[in-house]
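Journal club prep, notes for RB
We'll compare a predicted complex against what the paper describes. Inputs for the heme C case:
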Amino acid sequence: MTKIFSPTRLVGLVALGVLLQAVAIGAASAETFFKYKNGKLERPTGYREWIYVGTPVTPNDMNDGAAAFPEHHNVYIDPDSWKHWKKTGEFRDGTILMKELVSVGSKAAVSGAGYFQGDFIGLEATIKSKKHFKDEPGNWAYFSFSTPDHKSLTETAEPFAAASCNACHQGAAADDWVFTQYYPVLSQGKAAGKDAIGGRKSDLTPLMGMGK
Ligand code: HEC
């Protein structure tokens, strides 16, 4: 009895408990923002409260009436990967970016003619994970939850073949398969620390070259 409850043994047990907890937290934190099981990604939720990085728009009427990814693409990165990006300028293992497709709702506003957002019509994702996608170039895998009629979303998605999505990203994206050249929040925030967060004078530095 005395042996079992000896102080050294107790300290040892507590230390083991702390270690196991640390391992469990470490394993969970890399994948807090998505769940990938049996070759399927569960549709992530809550991403509109992540970090919003920008909205490229490739409208049908500028693409012979049939854009590959029609209309606006609202892009978000998970907050932990954003923190890592502004600190190191790299996408950490476990990064997830969501791309929400939004139709062109109107082409005229009181401010002028343009492309204004209408309805949510689709959802895509990309994830970098050595553990799950060790055979994908750059460890990036690509998913779509959009249905063909663009009226609902699937519950799960399987990764596309590399030729369908990954290859174009690998060849043309500015940073590690991600099109940061179209997201100033990311390109200007790269390893910029506090200067990445907005509202600082340094935000306008690139504008000083305008008009040349
Ligand atoms: C012909 C090239 C091309 C192909 C093929 C392609 N993409 Fe992209 N993708 C882009 C470009 C360019 C952007 C950024 C600008 C935009 O959204 O139009 C982008 C952005 C994204 C983003 C936002 C994060 C990022 O990496 O910039 C996701 C998510 C995405 N694509 C998913 C997919 C999926 C899923 C497929 C396959 C079904 C796919 N892409 C196929 C060119 C491509």
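Talking point for the session: The chain has two domains: 1-30, 34-203.
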